[in-house]
Amino acid sequence: MIRKARIADLIPIKKITEACTAALIDQGIYQWNSEYPSLTAFKKDIEEQNLYVYENKGAVIGCIMFSQEKDPLYDSIQWLTDGHKNLYIHRLAVHPNVQKQGIARQMMDFAEAYAIREKMISIRLDTFSKNSRNIRFYKARGYAKLGDVYFIKQSQDPFHCFEKVVKRI
Known about the structure:
seven-stranded mixed beta sheet; 4 helices
């Protein structure tokens, strides 16, 4: 079940991202670290009602954040659509113990359905350039790679920006 996150979900969400960080580092992927994603970011997401969790049998095992707020770093990207009515996805995570079961796909389906229901023009996101699994995942869903941004607190390597048009203009 996917539902809006609550403050009580903060610690389980943080534990998921810590487990994901460790699993990624074990694979030589330095996408997340002790600074990102932070409890502060998740708390803000919850307060702004932009964070959703995937719950199974009472346990939170995944999360996804989406909003219409654009990161200023995205200004350098040549997007497919103009800058209004776009949904931005961040902090998609599934606990490593339950990955490869379609949970990320379900959360993306949920976010995409939300975008269509709310009459968004497109969905935008970024993923780490060294995370080939994520890159394949987004390309398979019809997202186009458009350019790179750098989140220096996370990595010196770029993050690829992707966009999927969900409404023809």
